[in-house]
Amino acid sequence: MNLTWREVPDERRDLFPEGSCGCGADLTAGRDLGVVDRYQQHEIPLVAVRVTQYDQHAVACRCGIVHTATRPEGSRSGPVGYGPNPQAWCVYLMMVHHVPAWRCRQLVESLTGTAPSVGFVHGMLTRASVLLDEADKRIRALLTAAYVVCADETPLRVGPAAAPAGRKKAVRYLLVACTRWVTHYLVGGRDLDMFKAMVIADMAAGSVIVHDRYQNYDAGPFAHLLHQLCCAHLLRDLAGAGEVYPGEHWPVQIADVKEAVTESGAPPLAPTGSRPLVRAICRYLGVPAA
Question: What is the pTM of this model?
Fold first, then answer.
């Protein structure tokens, strides 16, 4: 929520002048003339660890069977444990903001007063991944059914420091497949086997995959897909063409058409419906359509 006026604040406080008037009268005895100024302060309440003890009672049914109350959901074995909020903080800091486990531990201690161990913080990654397994399956299913999926890969500084056999660098990659609404991530190598583990391998024949020029996208496992070069790469190509051919207008014209189509928010076109767009571009450029 940004810093805007709220018609219904969480709390209201009336402030009255205090002290005494220049005449010597106490201002608390003055006549209230109503509200003459309003100010809303957006504040974050102080966060501090709060310890709650849960005493699980046992009760005996009249039939003789004994029932024992269960611990709160998410509780661990042993006499003490962290609740869902500090666990969520750790996962959020590590996954969303890429904060190292030891630094995450320091932040949680500084902000709340509780100090989980680095091992506990790091262990939350595995626990969170198990809980997200069903969500992962649903995201993969949604991407598999999509008509157009964008894919990319970028290096990450994670994993062992030593390079594996046959490689010069110890580099792992974040492989991404996404639409406007959902995104799926994989962490691993940049080899073909890892690419075959991506969602794009399960897409239906005739679906469109948008990607860069990396060779694995054009490999046999993805031959059933229609391939679209990423428009960011096309724009860089057009910018380069404009530098190589400074007297030509077509690099700028094509780039303008691309931006116009993007800003229009038009849905992706099936191959059989792309001819009107091709003719429109040709008319814009003043060239005959093929």
Answer: 0.64
